[in-house]
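Build the 3D complex.
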Amino acid sequence: MPPLLGIEFLCKVADVISEYLGGITEDLIKDNFVIVYQLLDEMMDNGFPLTTEINTLKDMIAPPNIVSRMLSVVTGGSSNMNTVLPIATTSNWPWRSTDVKYSNNEVYFDLVEEMDVIVNRDGFLIKYEVYGEIRVIARLSGVPELTMTFANPSIINDVSFHPCVQFRPWETHQQLTFVPPDGEFKLMSYRVKKLKNTPIYVKPQFSSTGGLCRVSILVGIRNDPGKQIDYTTLEFPLPSSVASWDLTANHGNISSSPGSKTLTWTIGKMPKDKSPCLSGTMHLEKGMDHLEEFPTLLVKFKIMGIAMSGLRIDRTDVRNVTYSPHKGFRAVSKAANYEIRT
Amino acid sequence: MPPPPPHRPTSTSTPSGKGELAELKTQLRQLAGSRAPGVEDLKRELYKKVISYMTIGIDVSPLFSEMVMCSATSDVVLKKMCYLYVGNYARVHPDLALLTINFLQKDCQDEYPMIRGLALRSLCSLRVQNLVEYLVGPLRSGLKDTHGYVRTVAVLGVLKLYHIAPNACKDNDFPAMLKELIHRDGDSQLHFSFVSGGIQFFYLMNNEHMIYMIKDFSEWAQCLVLEMVAKYVPEDPNETFDIMNLLEDRLQHANSAVVLATIKVFLNLTMSMADVHQQVYERIKAPLMTLVSSGSPEQSYAVLCHLHLLVMRAPVLFSSDYKHFYCRYSDPSYIKKLKLEMLTAVANENNTYEIVTELSEYAANVDVAIARESIRAVGKIALQQYDVNAIVDRLLQFLEMEKDYVTAETLVLVKDLLRKYPQWSQDCIAVVGNVSSKHVQEPKAKAALLWMLGEYALEMPDAPYVLEGFVESWAEEESPEVRLELLTAVAKCFFRRAPETQKILGAALAAALSDAHQDVHDRGLLYYRLLQHGVETAERVINPPKQAVSVFADTQSSEIKDRIFDEFNTLAVVYQQPSYMFLDKEHRGAFEFSDDTSTNASVTESSETMLASQSVDANDNDLLLSASEKEDTRGNLVSNGSSSYVAPSNSLIDGLGSFTVPPAASSLPTASFAIDDLLGLSLSTNSPESTLAQPSLVLNAKPALNPGAFQQKWRQLPVASTEDYGLSSQAAANLTGPQPLLKHMQTHLIHCIASGGQAPNFKFFFFAQKSNASTGLGYFLVECIINVTARKCTVNYKTDESDLLESFAAVFKSAILNFGV
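Done.
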């Protein structure tokens, strides 16, 4: 048994069920056990995954949405399955049914990047990678074929694609060609490694003697990304030997959860004119002379409108259709695992 | 499906008895004929109720005929619930099964394709052996159905039929029909999903040409095809490259299962081409690293286990990627542990500094278990001999951190380091001398400290006095391991600094002699007598000059690692155990996708035993020092101190020292056996079977055959003969693990390439080679399955030297029958 087959399938099942029921909790499953049973019946047969493509499933088993409920009340019909079976349609794209229709055709691309950074005790950057995803929301009629090119595809280190992406065009001239599934999906994910410039710096100092620990943490913009750095928070677990603390910040506020002994410093929007600073002292427990374990600082922030890896979408084209859809692009960079060791 | 909670309208309280059932019955009956609007909704509610009763274990089978009557409808949901119901009871009540079949067969001709399909699926899922004849007709028409959905279901149906009655499947020509469908069917939607069924089928039938169609398949079907391709042996290198080119883009698939399956194909295909194999490693690195860092912790753990396996096989290729194995603060500790092992493995001259720096940061980690692991990792790297100087400095810095567990782990490491690099003693001892013995609490660390005190008594001025403190608190010392070590340390110290230690030694010996622990008592007595015999003799036994240890015994044999590698992309990698160690025999082989729940049970069970055995391994390893010393002391005693001293772990390495021979067993006949064998003569010459053996068969004393080559040969050669032997009760009693038999066979020049199993079942693969055979030829391969309780042993021989097989079989037989005698 390939372990990843199991894991992937379970993830798919969870995805499908939450797509159908709007969540996945014990109560929801109990309330809708008939649908869950129908779904599982189609997704797995003879101990092996069968149909897991959400769009195909939706054609077979109607989701319990308000519209269909209303419809059944109005028409008196009771079946929540489509009478026309999708399988008969000779679609060449199993992830898409052919008869999709929208009055407003639109497609949105979201470039979501997560930064994975480790800064060591001496302030050196020892790891900086970006994991990115392109999420697409496609509401397009007919069977459109999309192409997408990047301005700088060479920076990408490793990619994986949704099954709808054709490999040939990517291999020859780094172009994504695909017939999108209907609705929301993850088009590709990629990794960019060995980046150099982090957008912010964090300079922590913990110096302890005689049962007192002086703390000073400086945060500031290092390489201005040109966009607002927002939702900045900095958190660290308080060492177990800390009895009490007295810390103040010149920007944002400090809170701590009593149970987990974690200190959170919420900065919010990063000010451009000054460097936020947290300072003060921590009192150690009796008998402790100095701090024995040094906390690791976790930094979180979001930058809207920019991809930190520098990846840029050059252009996208929609072919094979008569209309010209509305296209939207967004980028966001997040600090996912941004840790500063002290 | 969980039963609905009681407060839901779908399930009122449990039916108190016949009353509720009767009520349901009448309600169903009323609805059966009704055509009023809204009746379907009522039916659904009733069905739900019935099914929820069924799932909580109430027997609702009396409603059978009413349920079937009511299901004359086009409502698919109702049908589905009904199928669930009948499917459940058909298995338990054979008398109802025939009724069910009739009902389902009728539905197979329904006008709605969905219903046809569902009925066919339910029909095939009944899996009742004696009803196979009823399946064939509907299946045949299902395969020719106009609608894709029904065809898909029919294909899967054929597969199910194959599982319960392979012959019925072949007799009815289904394989040919399927083949035709796959190649002909233009409906790609159908193709996409139905093929997974077809593929499972061909998977069992071993058809290898699916690969060219792979891109048309669903991701799950692709996994199956890839699994199949991985077993394929290409005819020539060109074919290998064709396959690899075709599959290369699969490495970029979003589904990690596909990626892993592709990697397995690549690895297997290039096994015999060393340079390409290496390129494959380079190629698969990036996708694996991406999978590790993205996705859920479960996924990244599973991938990391595979990566771990690859790193362990070829650390050099990953040495520049060490930063990927840096632990994140938020990683769960099971992931951190794997990463630490990989960091240790990839360390080389160029990156040691960075890696050790990184590891040192973990030593200050809040997570104590990880801090310990990382210190051990530093030690392991130090033992690998890269830039030892700097590492020793680090280790000594750890000692200055003054945390109990850090100190403990570090002491153990420093001890190992000193055993390997005695030249570092001066630096280490200076610092170790400063460690206050009060900070050292753990037995292992204490033992390590004591060993150093004894060994380096001359360099440490206060060694006798520290030891004195320990001896004074002898009674409070709980661990016998520490007491043993203390006794030895005091004795060693005595040989070096007699005047200061004499008194302490006396106290220690007295304490040891009155010790409740047998080993401690015996060692005390032994030392006492030795000392009585003469100090010089005693020193020669207790404290002989030592050679530095060159290699420490590895915990997991490379055979096992190879076995696990052969099972790439299975749970074996995640468990770090070959599958035969956690699977029952009947679950192995072709039906690995059967949804049998008992597999899970056996898996969990054996993972527990796995843990147990691993921890035993760990203990053994830690006890290595003291145990081996004991061993040697004994060995020297027997030989009257005349033989030269062999360093403890050297003897462990050539695998003889650890093999404890009970004194009785070393009586004369056995001894002469061993000597005969050492001379390279086959045992058969002095065993009763020797008459059978042809004198021309002499076995090669050191045949070379690596596991890969063995496997290839095993696959190629047919079974030449199969025999059953009965084992003596002594042999069965001796066979508590694979090791003793392994050793025994080795003395007969029959070598083991892989072994495994838990009592009472063991499985061994042996091989031997005719002496003076040309390389790669003259091999005898043996698969030997032993059941200890039945005292039976089944042996399969394979050889490329068939005319000598008989004499080899005789040798093997006599060897195995002599085991334990």
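Chain B touches chain A through 93 residues (CB under 8 Å).
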